[in-house]
TrEMBL record:
InterPro entries: ATP_synth_F0_asu (IPR000568), ATP_synth_F0_asu_bact/mt (IPR045083), F0_ATP_A_sf (IPR035908). Belongs to the ATPase A chain family. It is a multi-pass membrane protein. GO terms for molecular function: proton-transporting ATP synthase activity, rotational mechanism. It is found in: Membrane. This is ATP synthase F(0) complex subunit a. Signal peptide: none annotated. Component of the ATP synthase complex composed at least of ATP5F1A/subunit alpha, ATP5F1B/subunit beta, ATP5MC1/subunit c (homooctomer), MT-ATP6/subunit a, MT-ATP8/subunit 8, ATP5ME/subunit e, ATP5MF/subunit f, ATP5MG/subunit g, ATP5MK/subunit k, ATP5MJ/subunit j, ATP5F1C/subunit gamma, ATP5F1D/subunit delta, ATP5F1E/subunit epsilon, ATP5PF/subunit F6, ATP5PB/subunit b, ATP5PD/subunit d, ATP5PO/subunit OSCP. The lineage of its organism: Eukaryota, Metazoa, Chordata, Craniata, Vertebrata. Keywords: ATP synthesis, CF(0), Hydrogen ion transport, Ion transport, Membrane, Mitochondrion, Transmembrane, Transmembrane helix, Transport. It comes from Motacilla flava thunbergi. GO terms for cellular component: proton-transporting ATP synthase complex.
Amino acid sequence: MNLSFFDQFSSPSLLGIPLILISMTFPALLLPSLDNRWITNRLSTLQLWFINLVTKQLMMPLDKKGHKWALILTSLMIFLLLINLLGLLPYTFTPTTQLSMNLALAFPLWLATLLTGLRNQPSASLGHLLP
């Protein structure tokens, strides 16, 4: 078997399907499904408890005006947790090790907070940008 130095970065595949796609779609099975009842089984109860815990921890230091960010911050936190847990599986690659994914997640959130601050409190926001 002839390997190069860069073969360690190639995505492993099974029957021509990259395993990273399978491992990234697997956590979607753990998310609650739509049903006419709120709590259907123990797994959905555990998921709702965990989402509530994460939301409480994220929103505790913020005031009431900051709670409008609860949905995006909670979903981002759970997404990052699931993606990083995928790195524990054998033969998978954690996508958050790439700078491109981190920048794609961080830059829009940073820009949104900057523009929101400039819109609501322009003098204080410009004061933070000074050296």
